[in-house]
Design brief:
- The protein is largely without helices or strands.
- It has a domain of 64 residues.
- It has no helix or strand.
Length: 98
């Protein structure tokens, strides 16, 4: 999967500036990144070089332990009963959902 395949817009985009001293900081939208478990970063362009080299990406924030809630209420079907799962959208001859 590539970023072109994603159906969503990015949560935030940055216009990067050349930073030979590594001192620039880019503020993020805090509300968008308050509960991040996975972060993907895409660099579609560079500053005219043939290759892109990234030496350091630093992230600031507060770490909080992930709270995983186990399943508390669920229905379990040991063997499916087709009579319980009738669908009007299925054409019996072709078995395609319309």
């Amino acid at each position: 999967m590539s970023f072109d395949d994603a159906a969503r817009e990015p949560d935030q985009m940055f216009n990067l500036n050349q930073d030979p001293t590594g001192e620039l900081e880019y503020p993020t939208k805090i509300a968008r990144f308050s509960n991040v478990y996975h972060l993907s970063i895409h660099f579609p362009k560079n500053f005219g070089a043939e290759t892109t080299k990234i030496f350091y990406i630093g992230l600031k924030g507060e770490w909080t332990e992930a709270h995983r809630h186990e399943v508390t209420i669920c229905n379990y079907e040991a063997s499916a009963n087709p009579a319980d799962h009738k669908l009007e959208q299925i054409t019996p001859q072709t078995h395609f959902i319309s």
